UniProtKB/TrEMBL annotation:
<keyword id="KW-0997">Cell inner membrane</keyword>
<feature type="transmembrane region" description="Helical">
    <location>
        <begin position="57"/>
        <end position="90"/>
    </location>
</feature>
<keyword id="KW-0812">Transmembrane</keyword>
<keyword id="KW-0472">Membrane</keyword>
<feature type="domain" description="ABC transmembrane type-1">
    <location>
        <begin position="61"/>
        <end position="262"/>
    </location>
</feature>
<feature type="transmembrane region" description="Helical">
    <location>
        <begin position="144"/>
        <end position="164"/>
    </location>
</feature>
<feature type="transmembrane region" description="Helical">
    <location>
        <begin position="97"/>
        <end position="124"/>
    </location>
</feature>
<dbReference type="GO" id="GO:0005886">
    <property type="term" value="C:plasma membrane"/>
</dbReference>
<dbReference type="GO" id="GO:0055085">
    <property type="term" value="P:transmembrane transport"/>
</dbReference>
<protein>
    <submittedName>
        <fullName>Putative spermidine/putrescine transport system permease protein</fullName>
    </submittedName>
</protein>
<dbReference type="InterPro" id="IPR000515">
    <property type="entry name" value="MetI-like"/>
</dbReference>
<feature type="transmembrane region" description="Helical">
    <location>
        <begin position="12"/>
        <end position="37"/>
    </location>
</feature>
<keyword id="KW-0813">Transport</keyword>
<dbReference type="Pfam" id="PF00528">
    <property type="entry name" value="BPD_transp_1"/>
</dbReference>
<keyword id="KW-1003">Cell membrane</keyword>
<keyword id="KW-1133">Transmembrane helix</keyword>
<dbReference type="InterPro" id="IPR035906">
    <property type="entry name" value="MetI-like_sf"/>
</dbReference>
Amino acid sequence: MSRRAAAPTRALAWLPIIALAIFILTPQVSSLTYAFFRSDGTFTTDGLTGLADSGAIVAPLIRSLVIASLTVVVLVGTLVPAVVAVHLWAPKLRSVLGILCTLPLVIPAIAIVAGLSAVLRGLASQGRGSVGMQISTALQSQDLPLVLVGTYVVLCLPFTYRSIDSGLSTLPLRTLFESSSVLGASTPDTLRRVVLPNIAGPVMFSAFYAFALSIAEYTVAATLSIPMLPVYLNTLSSTNFRGSITLSVLLSLTTWLLLAAATVSASRFGRTSAPASRKETTTR
């Protein structure tokens, strides 16, 4: 009797998951069907062919890949040492750093880019040839818009900080640094060869998440009039609608795959990194 009573309960528990899956997958399946199938049901690659023939996608694609890669490097290269330093030498500032890193959750991206635009206009208003004008021009260069790198790093902070902070909280960090110091290792060596292997999961999650956000972000790039891949996708819809839907599907699938890889790598590297780091510390 109890099993019979539990069956409807289990079915009801799956209803929200099924509803959410339908809500998420229906637009994706519809877009995929339109992108690769004609109205008579025959398969077509006209959308992909149109994108390849025009060649206009190459520059936005390369620009987006470069900016996404730079975002990952800057995010990991600055956030990991900062969080380690706070854990080791300034634990009282941990709550302050946590609040600062989670602020982008409550500040809309459009508000961030509006403030950023005001700063860039202020620098440019100093006049032609001034240092401010040169900085503003360099940050907004169409070839390498570094302003997007800083903005995307800020947008990634809420989730990546929590991931790295949680990973470091499980480690005897001070003991690791003191033991490495006794064995003659410098602070950078300890960070690279002992700490990073122990938080490989959170670091990989941060890298994949930052890349996924950077490659698919539209609001900041469009507001600053920088032709990134999502901006190109929006303009493409007026001339090649099937091609824009095809590109949208591919971009969406890429983002989902990156987020899935972030989740898988966080758990897999988290399980395998600890034994490797202990072996590394022993051999030293």
